[in-house]
Design brief:
The protein is of the alpha/beta class. It is built from 14 helices and 16 strands. The protein folds into 2 domains: 237 residues, Aldehyde Dehydrogenase, Chain A, domain 1; 148 residues, Aldehyde Dehydrogenase, Chain A, domain 2 (3-Layer(aba) Sandwich), CATH 3.40.309. The N and C termini lie far apart (58 Å).
């Protein structure tokens, strides 16, 4: 174990040293490194998929659930999407060095702020090997070094991808050590990693609630993370029913295993009789199981083709990550807002309405990282938001919220220009 700890600390030291060069590396070098990564993802797709298939086979044999298996799996289409996201990040403006809020003080000093990298980002993540690429490219473009620690279940995929990244960025002239991958899967090393505040400036866990809680409770450095992501869609009394059906279907069914999928639908009593059966019928085509309160159950129970059951208290505030949705009929926007306040997680919330005042109330009063009007919560994604990808989606308020892209991986320093100024 002593040797493993020393190897871990050596990776941290190497990342810290690399971060000093990355802080002033040119945009051209960073972009070339990212293009190399995107090209290599396609050139080495067979090698990547073979490594991933080994992980998937072992995970399936171990009894991994369907949602996690879906997150683990890579195929050619997903690799093409990842490579496209990498190229999008390369095309984005480089945030490092941006000067903003410049102003002249009454005493003549010229004062402003200049955007700088954070330094070294540490991250631990579960199941999703695409995170190895997403986090690496965002850290590199924003001038940060990164220490990656993926889950045991994706070790072959992550190791293959990490080596690809390291080789690709070396060809572009990036400093050695900029991307470090912890290939030792011994969980006892995690506690040591979380104490390496002398090398790691910020830690970002990405995974289930247990992982994030563990990191928050044990990390010696600042942490950005999200807990469970419970997403509500509220259908208001004057909603366009066609819009409501399409949004509810997309939010629940398009990819149910991810954190921005719909978990609970709230529907106004005045529209429930006409709208809820249509939503339920569409959900039924995809096999969605509905956990309904008494009023929703009364509306739907006559249709034997639907998978419905009585909701329990545990269903409210539940992140299902599956083809399951809780359904509740409410009497007002106020009741919907109160339900979201009580059971929401600060992630993604949506209203379907044709009432401008209701939409503005929802936007103003719902406390969440992303709040939608007449749109699916499935859009909460770095790629969809034009960020190329995201390091994580934060439900915190400090220092960043929602999808974490390039700008969220930077800090700033005050810059001051004088002309012989001295303080009186």
């Amino acid at each position: 174990m002593d040797r493993a700890i020393e190897e871990l600390r050596a990776k941290g030291r190497a990342a810290k040293e690399a971060s000093r060069r990355l802080a002033y590396l040119s945009t051209e070098v960073k972009n070339q490194a990212l293009h190399n990564i995107a090209d290599d993802l396609m050139a080495k797709k067979n090698e990547i998929i073979a490594a991933n298939q080994k992980d998937c086979q072992e995970a399936k044999a171990s009894g991994m659930d369907v949602a996690m298996l879906d997150r683990l799996m890579l195929n050619e289409g997903r690799l093409e999407s990842i490579a496209s996201d990498v190229r999008t990040v390369a095309a984005l403006p480089d945030p490092v060095g941006e000067v903003f809020d410049m102003r002249t003080l009454p005493n003549g000093l010229l004062l402003g702020r200049k955007r700088t990298p954070l330094g070294v980002i540490g991250t631990m993540y579960e199941s999703r090997p695409n995170v190895t690429i997403d986090i690496s490219v965002l850290c590199l473009k924003s001038g940060n070094a990164v220490v990656l620690r993926g889950g045991r279940e994706a070790i072959n995929s992550n190791l293959t991808l990490a080596r690809l990244v390291q080789a690709a960025i070396a060809r572009a002239g990036m400093p050695e050590g900029a991307v470090q991958f912890v290939d030792n899967t011994d969980r006892n090393l995690v506690s040591h990693l979380l104490k390496m505040s002398d090398y790691i400036d910020l830690f970002i866990p990405r995974g289930g609630a247990d992982l994030i809680t563990f990191v928050r409770e044990n990390a010696a450095m600042p942490v950005i993370g999200a807990g469970a992501s419970v997403c509500h869609t509220y259908v208001d009394w004057n909603a366009d029913i066609d819009k409501a059906v399409a949004i509810a279907f997309n939010a629940k069914v398009q990819r149910p295993s991810v954190c921005n999928a719909l978990d609970t639908m709230l529907i106004h009593a005045d529209i429930a009789e006409s709208c809820l059966p249509r939503i339920a019928a569409e959900w039924a085509k995809a096999g969605v199981e509905m956990h309904c309160d008494e009023r929703a159950l009364a509306i739907l129970k006559a249709d034997s083709s639907l998978k419905v059951k009585t909701a329990t208290e545990e269903d409210w505030g539940q992140e299902f990550l599956a083809l399951i949705a809780a359904v509740k009929v409410v009497d007002s926007l106020d009741e919907a807002l109160e339900h979201i306040e009580r059971y929401g997680s600060g992630a993604d919330e949506a209203i379907v309405t044709e009432d401008y005042s209701a939409a503005m109330r929802f936007l103003n009063e719902v406390d969440a990282g992303c709040v939608y009007v007449n749109a699916s919560t499935r859009f909460t994604d770095g790629g969809q938001f034009g960020l190329g990808a995201e390091v994580a989606i934060s439900t915190q308020k400090m220092h960043a919220r929602g999808p974490l892209g390039l700008t969220e991986l930077t800090s700033y320093k005050w810059i001051v220009f004088g002309d012989g100024h001295v303080r009186p």
